[in-house]
Automatic annotation (TrEMBL):
Pfam families: PD40 (PF07676). Gene3D superfamilies: Immunoglobulins, TolB, C-terminal domain. Residues 338-363 are annotated as: Disordered. SUPFAM superfamilies: DPP6 N-terminal domain-like (SSF82171), E set domains (SSF81296). Keywords: Signal. PROSITE patterns: PROKAR_LIPOPROTEIN. The keyword Signal applies. InterPro entries: 6-blade_b-propeller_TolB-like, Ig-like_fold, Ig_E-set, WD40. Residues 1-20 form the signal peptide. The keyword Signal applies. This is IPT/TIG domain-containing protein.
Length: 383
């Protein structure tokens, strides 16, 4: 019986000895410092170098058990007190605020941009100096993970939209010029795509065009080209055009990570939508003909004043249009404008058309044109 008791005592002694030493013969120290409850903020966007907008930020450590010389540690790196000589060149510093009784009322750390240049996580804890190491405590607090998210996406701007005029019931190919447009497709997961979205709003009708889901739509950092379908140009008025950038993506393997930045361009650009052909001033000058030359052309009018044939700039050529004004017609007549310089397939001519002339009753209209696709087997040159 005595041998058995002696054996138990030896075994217990061995267990306690093993618990107090590691493989290197060093004594393990239990945390005996403060208790951190939460960080504020708990995450921040990364600020890649050169970080001009956010050279540093203040991290507030909330908890209990802090003392006058508590030091914050960031990823194991000790942040010296801001009042110490070692704070000058430090990438982080500790700031302790005391009341009249030397009790800590606020503990913060100033974290430089060098420590948040890359997305990821950092471990934050505190250390109370002067701990009694003989009792097996090391003065360290518990640790809390701080998240450094992806950098924020920029907010887009829109400087111009061309053309600035559209006709009800006709599709419109527009070019939006600005800055900070995004075009970062995901390699496999479509939800990870970072692409700007074009917004077209006309009355209660709203259209959102995103590259890769709507064609034809192309995008660069400064320009978006897209075609607004005729179904979204269904009433006269003023359409607004904006560009939206999504927030940056959260870190895929970090719970609680969020994106930031992005947003909608302001102020919105505008496009006039009307039932008649767009005036020359609202169109960009064509490559082969000047705006002034088209404006100087005299329209052809039928004897009763009902029909008007005229030249206006299209995209990118001058075209000939016919306007039925319904002058002198029954009340059931509805005014409308038709494109005359059109191919058999209904497309605008691929060249400039000019100088329309009309018979007195408006039944016959003639004009000259450089377009070779209005008539089959047309010879080269103006017809």
């Amino acid at each position: 019986m005595k041998r058995f008791c002696t054996l138990i005592a030896v075994v217990l002694l061995a267990i306690f000895a093993a618990a107090a030493c590691n493989d290197y013969g060093n004594t393990f120290q239990s945390p005996g410092g403060a208790l951190i409850t939460f960080l504020s903020p708990k995450q921040i966007p990364a600020c890649p170098a050169p970080c001009t907008n956010n050279p540093s930020f203040t991290l507030t450590i909330n908890g209990t058990g802090f003392v006058a010389k508590t030091l914050v540690q960031w990823n194991g790196k000790t942040c010296p007190l801001s009042s110490s000589s070692g704070a000058t060149n430090a990438s982080c510093t500790t700031n302790v605020t005391l009341d009249s009784n030397s009790n800590v009322t606020l503990l913060t750390a100033t974290i430089s941009s060098a420590l948040i240049a890359q997305p990821g996580t950092a471990v934050v804890n505190t250390m109370n100096p002067g701990s009694n190491y003989g009792t097996g405590t090391n003065g360290l607090s518990n640790t809390i993970t701080f998240i450094v998210n992806n950098p924020p996406n920029l907010t887009p701007t829109v400087s111009s939209v061309t053309p600035a005029c559209a006709v009800v019931g006709s599709p419109l190919a527009i070019t939006v010029t600005g800055t900070n447009f995004m075009n970062v497709p995901a390699s496999s997961d479509p939800s990870q795509t970072q692409v700007s979205r074009l917004n077209w709003t006309l009355g209660s009708s709203q259209l959102q065009l995103t590259p890769y889901t709507v064609t034809p739509t192309t995008i660069t950092a400064t320009q978006i080209t897209a075609t607004i379908p005729a179904t979204s140009i269904n009433a006269a008025g003023t359409a607004t055009v904006t560009v939206y950038n999504p927030p940056s993506l959260p870190l895929p393997t970090v719970p609680g990570s969020t994106g930031s930045g992005g947003g909608t361009s302001t102020p919105p650009a505008s496009v006039t939508v009307q039932t008649t052909a767009c005036p020359v001033a609202a169109k960009a000058p064509a490559n082969s003909v000047s705006t002034g030359a088209v404006a100087e052309e005299t329209p052809a009018v039928s004897l009763d004043g009902r029909y008007v044939a005229y030249t206006a700039l299209g995209d990118p050529h001058a075209q000939v249009f016919l306007r039925d004004t319904c002058e002198g017609a029954p009340t059931s007549c509805q005014s409308r404008t038709s494109l005359l310089s059109v191919t058999s397939g209904g497309d605008p001519g691929a060249g400039d058309s000019h100088t329309p002339s009309m018979s007195s009753d408006g039944r016959y209209i003639a004009f000259s044109s450089d377009a070779t696709d209005l008539v089959e087997n047309a010879p080269p040159g103006r017809q």
